[in-house]
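User: Sorry, what's this?
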Amino acid sequence: MKRVLAIILGGGAGTRLYPLTKLRAKPAVPVAGKYRLIDIPVSNCINSEIFKIYVLTQFNSASLNRHIARTYSFAGFTEGFVEVLAAQQTPDSFNWFQGTADAVRKYLWLLDEWDVDEYLILSGDHLYRMDYRQFVYRHRETGADITLSVLPIDERRASDFGLVKIDDSGRIINFSEKPKGDALTKMRVDTTVLGLTPEQAQEQPYIASMGIYIFKKEVLTKLLKEASERTDFGKEIIPDASKDYNVQAYLYDGYWEDIGTIEAFYHANLALTKQPQPPFSFYDEQAPIYTRARYLPPSKILDSQITESMIGEGCILKKCRIEHSVLGVRSRIEAGCVIQDSLIMGADFYQPFAERQSDCETKGIPLGIGANTTIRRAIIDKNARIGCDVQIVNKDNVQEAERENQGFHIKSGIVVVLKNAIIPDGTII
C-alpha cells in the first residue's frame, strides 16, 4: 500500500448539514459523541496501511486543521502524513474549487511529486468501515484504469443514488444519476457477477456508486488535464472516461451511510445506541476508529436513569433521565432533565467549578443543560447554554424553520440548537 496516495474530499459548504457547518468544515462535524466525520476515512486508511493522506477543503477549515494537527502525527521513520489542502489562489487559478474533480486538479502539481501508482479518492461525510486493501487488489487484478466502489441496493432506494450498469466481466458500461421510471428499469443488472448469491441478486438488482474511486496515477492526471471544464468525478469525469478506459466495479456489501443531511446525520448517530447489533460499531478492535486523545476524567453519573444511550467521557449527569440519546464529551445535564431521542454534542471546555450544585438562581446561564429541562428529537451543538425549565420538543410539529437569531433551526422536524447558542430560562421550542 506504499504505492497508494489517499485524497479525502472535504466537500463544499455543507449546506445540507447547516447549521452544524456554520462554524466548521463538513469533515469536522462531531459524530458519535467523541469523533469527527474525518476520523472515519482517515482511520480506514490507517487500518488499510495507507499512510499518505491529503484532505481537500475550502470552507471553515480552522477546526479541521486543528483536529488533524492534534490527532494524526506519524513517527519520523515513515513517510506517513495527514495534511489539509485548502483552496488557494495561484498564478494559474484565481477561483475556488468548482467541484470534486476541480479540487484535485488544482493540486495536481503537488500530487505529481509523489512516486505512487494509484490515487484513492474518498469522501469526508460517509460512515462505514472498509479495508481499502481489497479494493486496491481488485483494481490491480482487473488491470483497471479506474475502479469504483459500488453498493448493491433494492428498487425502493435506487432512485436516490447515482447508478451504474456493468457487463459480464464487471466493467462499467453505463451511468445514470438518480433515475426514475423506465430509466431506472434500464439500470437493472445481474449482481451475481460481483459475487452476490442469486437470492441477494433478486432482492438487490441495482448497484449504486459510493463516491469512492481508485485511479491509476497517469490516467487521473491525463483526464484532469484534458478536460479542464469538467469539474465533478461522479457526473462528468468518470462517465466520460468509461468509453475509452477500463472502468471496473468493486462490490462493497457492508454498512455504508451518506450522512450529508441533518436527518441522515441524526438517524446515523442514534442508530449507534441499538442493541444487540447496531448497524455500525465503534467497538471493533481489529479496525478501530481513531480520534484525538483528550485525557478527560470518567463520566460522573449521580442518581440518574439511562437507557439505550451512549455517554462520552468527562460528562456530569445529575438526577436526570436519558433515553435513546448520544451525549458528547463534557456534557453537563442538571437535575430534573429529561433527554429523549437526542444528540447532545457536549462542550470544548469546562467552566470553573464544573461540579457545582444545580442552581437556577445564579446569574447567567452556564454551559450544558439547565435543571428541569426537557429535550426531545433534537441536536444540541457544542458549547450551547440551555437554561432552566426549557422545553425543546417541537410542540407544533414544525418541519422546517430558520430561527438563527433565537439560536436554533428546525430541519425535517429535528430541532438543531446552534453551536455557542444561549437558550434563556423557560423557553419553549
Notes: The chain has a mean pLDDT of 89. The chain has eleven helices and 31 strands. The CA atoms of residues 72 and 393 lie 39 Å apart.
